[in-house]
Amino acid sequence: MIMFQSDYLEGAHPEILKRLMETNDIQRVGYGEDIFSESARKKIKKRIGRDDVDIHFIVGGTITNLLVISSALRQYQGVISPKTGHINVHETGAVEVTGHKVITVDGRDGKLSAEDVKMIMENHLSDPSKEHTVQPKMVYISFPTENGTIYSKKELEDIRKVTKEYDLYLFIDGARLGYGLASPDTDLTIEDIANLSDVFYIGGTKCGAFSGEAVVISNSELKKDFKYNIKARGAMLAKGSLNGIQFDTLFTDDLYFKITKDAVGKALKLKDAFTKKGIKLFGSSSTNQIFPVLSDSEITKLREKYLFETWGKNNDGKTIVRFCTSWNTKEENLNSLIEDIEKL
Amino acid sequence: MIMFQSDYLEGAHPEILKRLMETNDIQRVGYGEDIFSESARKKIKKRIGRDDVDIHFIVGGTITNLLVISSALRQYQGVISPKTGHINVHETGAVEVTGHKVITVDGRDGKLSAEDVKMIMENHLSDPSKEHTVQPKMVYISFPTENGTIYSKKELEDIRKVTKEYDLYLFIDGARLGYGLASPDTDLTIEDIANLSDVFYIGGTKCGAFSGEAVVISNSELKKDFKYNIKARGAMLAKGSLNGIQFDTLFTDDLYFKITKDAVGKALKLKDAFTKKGIKLFGSSSTNQIFPVLSDSEITKLREKYLFETWGKNNDGKTIVRFCTSWNTKEENLNSLIEDIEKL
Amino acid sequence: MIMFQSDYLEGAHPEILKRLMETNDIQRVGYGEDIFSESARKKIKKRIGRDDVDIHFIVGGTITNLLVISSALRQYQGVISPKTGHINVHETGAVEVTGHKVITVDGRDGKLSAEDVKMIMENHLSDPSKEHTVQPKMVYISFPTENGTIYSKKELEDIRKVTKEYDLYLFIDGARLGYGLASPDTDLTIEDIANLSDVFYIGGTKCGAFSGEAVVISNSELKKDFKYNIKARGAMLAKGSLNGIQFDTLFTDDLYFKITKDAVGKALKLKDAFTKKGIKLFGSSSTNQIFPVLSDSEITKLREKYLFETWGKNNDGKTIVRFCTSWNTKEENLNSLIEDIEKL
Amino acid sequence: MIMFQSDYLEGAHPEILKRLMETNDIQRVGYGEDIFSESARKKIKKRIGRDDVDIHFIVGGTITNLLVISSALRQYQGVISPKTGHINVHETGAVEVTGHKVITVDGRDGKLSAEDVKMIMENHLSDPSKEHTVQPKMVYISFPTENGTIYSKKELEDIRKVTKEYDLYLFIDGARLGYGLASPDTDLTIEDIANLSDVFYIGGTKCGAFSGEAVVISNSELKKDFKYNIKARGAMLAKGSLNGIQFDTLFTDDLYFKITKDAVGKALKLKDAFTKKGIKLFGSSSTNQIFPVLSDSEITKLREKYLFETWGKNNDGKTIVRFCTSWNTKEENLNSLIEDIEKL
Lengths: 344, 344, 344, 344
Fold this sequence. Notes:
Four copies of one chain form a homotetramer.
Chain A: E1 2-3, H1 14-23, H2 35-48, E2 54-58, H3 61-72, E3 77-82, H4 86-89, H5 94-97, E4 102-105, H6 114-125, E5 135-142, H7 153-165, E6 169-173, H8 177-181, H9 190-195, E7 199-203, E8 213-217, H10 220-223, H11 226-232, H12 241-250, H13 255-276, E9 289-290, E10 293-294, H14 296-303, E11 306-307, E12 309-313, E13 319-324, H15 331-342
Parallel strand pairs in A: 1-11, 3-4, 3-5, 5-6, 6-7
Antiparallel strand pairs in A: 2-8, 7-8, 9-13, 10-13, 12-13
């Protein structure tokens, strides 16, 4: 069976493995203070065009989310998220486990809008007994979203403006950041992501690494004592260099951007194949995840050779499924799938 | 500078790197359900002689400790630990962050005794207002301890008996398990560790892997829904195979036991060198950490070429320091250090 | 100004004060073990027709909710609630602060249905990666609801059935229980409430007491060690007799039921007055809270003499407001308000 | 049996009951915003000589402790307490349940010293891996202590100085504040307590009220959003006036100080009686709790007529017991006990 159900189906990009081999015997200190992590930090700072940020490498997405959110909020505060946000759906309540409510907005296409945030804040602030409700203090969005969609620069600037107006932190979950920035439809750069947020992360696990998310903190309120928070949540690796070396590799010669661009290109070919076949797509993803809406017989046929994920029911009764590409999607597997789509 | 300050100073054992290379392109599912993790589980079960255990691979020690403890306890319950226990000293209160008190006993040589546990339980149960105090429900010990010492089989059996008598869970932190089992002084096997606990873990990070601790749960009360707990604490890796492959390698041809035995052998040579020189050792470690008590001038001399950790003040005013060996301690570095000890 | 904005606007029922005076000098032990609390427990058990329950007096509603829910759930579990549930809206995220997600259903008229619960459970159980989502383990409903509405016996029995089918606890928040049971439309008795739930509480604070909610636990799984939980959440009063005496008084000669019945009668008179005037009511409350939908000018006129709460915007652009009656609503104030409604 | 086992054995001071009767029918708003609570706040501010403090009335001691501590600390921070501190011993780990470690010092006579705090801070700050340990951020002391002892003005000033030096909050648990200030040995006034702390509370429950502790916050960092915290912990009473009226009464004509002074006077008579009889006292309490060290036969004899608490074993093998007096200790009971002590 050929797997398309996610973007974390294999090991790590060969450059990473090579670098792990080369450095293996070099002694280094623990806990992310090593020379490789330091080098990775420098390269990332250069690439995002900012020297005034703190960068920490955390092992995976959920722990990064719970760590960033719980470190930023006081106990009575909550985080605003689209209903479809990863923290609201697929993290077994990890944010709530840290004691914080996820305040959801319905959103659209996996995204929330500046208007959504404004409305929540106005409702809260105009409530005479507001102390009886959770105080919103952070906005969480994913770029790209869980639906593969992206915010435009204008949309993100508007959200940024409203978060500043209401003294909210803006946190961008970039578990698939590379793929979002590789979308042909985006007008955003990684510099914009850094400049338009208080904290964001550059996803490694889903973008070619074995593990690791690079948390970039630009708001100095959030920088203070962050390492205590990392340790208290169990998120500090003894061999922190494992993540450091991986990010150092990914940010050498723009490898991170090249491999995610390649993956998006492949996903768009798949998208084209479905579209040409007259198969509708759920949402408007232009990144490495695509969501065709299939009939039961189409699913059965494709399941003979391919693994992909069931995403939900469409309102026409058909089934939304998900295909993902990654740094390691083989040309021959892609072509085979495209042919089989054409034969549907 | 030659580093001896810990056992996580380099990458991973070459066999692990080799195996990561070989498997890199093989597609596998996420979250620890992959074939490599399954294979590792089988090998571990065989090695410990038990088929009725659940095994989960978790990325590091602190998150394993907080995960196991918080999953086992109800909110009003606490965990008994020696004062020197890692959870009590060096985890930034991670157990307390999950809402549980660490109930400490002074212990001796880094260890607690069955008598210590008995006394705590008798005090609790005889208290007419016991509901005003934390209910002890788990005993946490490390094997080997943070001081490098080990429990004898008799000591562990006695602790096991008392935990059963008082309906307590026994949890053994095996972050350095391999080194404990490689001690020339131990009469315990990994089978014993499995049979004399409700849950324990086999440390990977400090024993040759990049990352990973294999949690082995034998008490069925603790097995239920553990994967929900893993996810809710952010401890589930998308690319769970990273840990699986490492443990699969470590448990092939007893590699885990060979490399830790080698490391302990080197540590004992160091110990000998200090002893011959008339330098006292703190505690009675017979594992891969040794704790010589040095004068300021001895420290200064050794610091010219070597890095090692300051552990604390001895009661004779001198300083306790720590030297560690590992799977990757180079023969030439060891010999160089021994020569320099002789010259002190 | 005459106040109608809630049912906790004055002290306590005079019988309670009298009883506090009479008993004031009698020495009694602390923490709810006193003879008055014991007597109250006996009377409540008799009144609900069950001897096999545990009863604890807790000081207020929010702390009762967070205590019951957090005591019942493991860390990865959540509680299902109607979107309008008090725990979801007006408790500053107190349930989330204890680490648990409130899983909401839209519901209808402030209520959820057995079907709602069934759908959530089927979705959860059929999810191949269910460990990535919060496990529902409890259903929370209010009787009467925050909208003043009540469940019919059939509705409650259906919910009970579905909770048993899916191994969920059913928790009934009875902060205003007396008013629900006094509704002319109810076919439920307090015996039914006790028999159709795992745990519920009899609200004191909003039903004539200074403070206090009587938590009645019938499911033995939830009884164990509950006093530890009470203390660990700070919910144990040193002078527990304060609550005990109040409930002992309220459950003497059915005082609790008499005063809530009187209050509901008064509310229905208000309801009639609005209806006669052609003023629409929001929802279908038949308890002590009524929700007329008023124009701005009607509000302005009534605000000259009366205080009442703004509840929200109606979909016709008018404003939903809330009037409450209680054990202490004075006949003359009620009549004055009715006259002023007639003059609108 | 005549009870001496605690200072919360009866209802409330008659003046409180009288005031509750008089005000019972007066309508007032909820949640501590009422005119009685406002009046109480004014009186307390006047009495402590500070207008720049925030005052909140919370229902009991444990919930006050957990609320104040968890509101002040970030997740990775802990609170320093004497080993004998109430939060460390008798609150079922309520502080840990909120996620914070209690960092204990052995102390002396139930007290900690400025030196103790200094040592903890120096150890923490000089630790190169301090992020691996809990960051101390608050000092918790009780006045009087759980052992009935008091800090001198000099001792408190020294502690204050050291907390300022290390940027720590100083929190004084005044559950029995009145008795401490009534000690013949004290050189502290309530003004001093207010001026030498960041937050403290005036205990009501143990000093003549049914319930209630008045939290006085002088540090503006701790004032912000405190009402959100109160609600999120379930500590906000709907009928907040219950506490307000009680404190308004206690702070009218210095009632609080008169009744605690009377109680201490009675305790000292008991102390004298024991001393005259040659019975040793544990510790150096000069407040309303006294701790004679009795033989088994002395205990048996006194238990014929009196109830008192067992406190622990003395190092001479005898038993430390506790006798308490309160606002309601009857002259005849006191005299009877004194006579029976004489007859021992």
